[in-house]
Write a structure and sequence with these properties.
The protein is an alpha+beta fold. It has 6 helices and 18 strands. It is globular. Bound molecules: FE2/S2 (inorganic) cluster and fe (ii) ion.
Length: 380
């Protein structure tokens, strides 16, 4: 790794990272699929928008901006008729593109009788919405699970009192594994980005720690080496794969879905995911692996909460060991703002050229340049 990587101009001009006024284009989690039965409609507050989500009689989920263009009634209190959302008040009906298709009292449909529609997807047991009618890529996958049937289990959502870009970094903060979680690890980093899919993958690998009893137990059974990877998608989903390349266990998968809340805090939805195995033995195996994933998450969750509930984030004194965090911030700053942002950068105010609030500025280079500390860096 070379500290010169930190001199990229993107690092000096942050518009998206830790900016509560920008909502990046990406998939945002809405509710568990089972909460929306066929023929039902509900409204949700999502990234400061009111969104009506409904499941047509064909079983497909659709999403529209919630307030009716006639007099502003929330479509969430209305009905689903066939595959259309019908307003409770005067029964205007809207199709999945947001176009009004029926006004009971007259034949003519005014040109303005339409709503913004949003792309939707059902994955990992949840409904997801994208802040645009068309999403260029689906909700992110784990590489090992691509194309396979999966089973997912959600844990209780939690709130962190900071912007989601800040608490998302926890998984790649190498120093804190030692200081907060007491895991003495020297990790090597490899990095891959896929700008088309708006994802970035961090893989951290090293010797299995042996500085406490559970680390020693793990080392005995699982082997000497350990690796985990964190895939960030659209700056609002973190896909964590643990126990890579260890003995006896397949990789364990979980994701964190982040939603910014109006008060500046973040709702985090953890979901455990595994490949679906068939039959009664498969069922037992699925549930054991999901339980193990949960236990690993609980063991590592530790005291992270009190950090993020009190943090006033600054990045003025990052060290070389913090390189993954800098790469992450650069990745965030090249994402694309959505129409849900409360400010829209102008052409001259692109992610790489605008002014930024002081707390967002990222230093051109580390204040104290220490040696790379077993942290190898490769960009591809
Ligand atoms: S307010 Fe929706 S149809 Fe009148
Ligand atoms: Fe942590």
């Amino acid at each position: 790794m070379s500290p010169s990587v930190l001199k990229n101009s993107v690092l000096n001009n942050s518009t998206i990272f830790n900016n509560p006024e920008i909502v990046a284009k990406g998939w945002y989690i809405v509710c568990p699929s089972r909460q929306l039965a066929k023929g039902k409609i509900k409204s949700f507050d999502l990234c400061a928008q009111r969104i009506a989500v409904f499941r047509g009689q064909d079983g497909k989920v659709r999403a529209l901006e919630a307030y009716c263009p006639h007099m502003g009634t929330d479509l969430g209190i209305g009905d689903v008729v066939g595959n259309q959302a019908r307003c409770f008040f005067h029964h205007w009906a809207f199709d999945e593109t947001g176009q009004c298709r029926d006004i009971p009292c007259q034949k003519h449909i005014p040109a303005a009788a339409k709503l913004q529609s949003y792309a939707t997807e059902e994955k990992y047991g949840f409904i997801w919405v994208y802040p645009n009618a068309i999403a260029p890529t689906p909700v992110a996958d784990f590489d090992e699970l691509k194309g396979k049937e999966t089973v997912a289990k959600a844990d209780k959502p939690l709130i962190r009192n900071c912007h989601h870009h800040i608490c998302m970094m926890n998984g790649i903060d190498a120093q804190h594994l030692n200081t907060v979680h007491h895991l003495s690890v020297d990790l090597e980093l490899s990095l891959e980005r896929d700008t088309h899919r708006n994802t970035i993958d961090f893989t951290l690998s090293g010797d299995m720690p042996n500085n406490n009893w559970y680390a020693r137990l793990g080392r005995r059974f699982l082997g000497d080496r350990y690796a985990y990877s964190m895939r960030y998608a659209h700056g609002c989903i973190g896909l964590l794969t643990m126990m890579k390349d260890v003995r006896f266990l397949p990789p364990l998968h979980m994701l964190y879905a982040y939603v910014p809340l109006p008060d500046g805090s973040t709702r985090i939805q953890p979901v455990y995911v595994t490949q679906k195995r068939k039959g009664p033995i498969g069922w037992i195996k699925n549930n054991l692996l999901l339980l193990l994933t949960r236990l690993c998450y609980y063991a590592l969750r530790g005291e992270d909460g009190k950090i993020y509930d009190n943090i006033q984030f600054t990045a003025q004194n990052l060290l070389s060991i913090d390189q993954p965090l800098v790469e992450y911030m650069r990745y965030i700053n090249q994402l694309v703002p959505s129409a849900w942002s409360s400010i829209q950068p102008s052409a001259s105010d692109s992610p790489s050229s605008s002014k930024s609030p002081p707390t967002n500025s990222i230093p051109a280079q580390p204040a104290h340049e220490i040696k790379p500390h077993a942290l190898n860096h490769s960009l591809s």
